[in-house]
Amino acid sequence: MFQYMEREMASEQFYNGLNCSQSIIAKYAGKYNLDVATACQLATGFGGGMGRQAKTCGALTGAYLVLGLEFGSSSPADK
Known about the structure:
By secondary structure, the chain is an all-alpha fold. The protein has one domain. It has four helices and no strands. It has helices at residues 4-15, 20-28, 36-43, 58-71.
């Protein structure tokens, strides 16, 4: 899923000031018709290992957000 160019784009986002989680979801936001600003707002709290507590990696939580966009359910009826 994460090809070389995609890694480079996410890294560029990080070096431009986004946190790890924001960098990952910002790369994929357009694919899911989500504007980058909203995606970054959603991912803000996951930066620095969830609230800057240095626990779960922000890049990992960003990837989980993207997986949720790809495979997640949107109603209780979805299994």
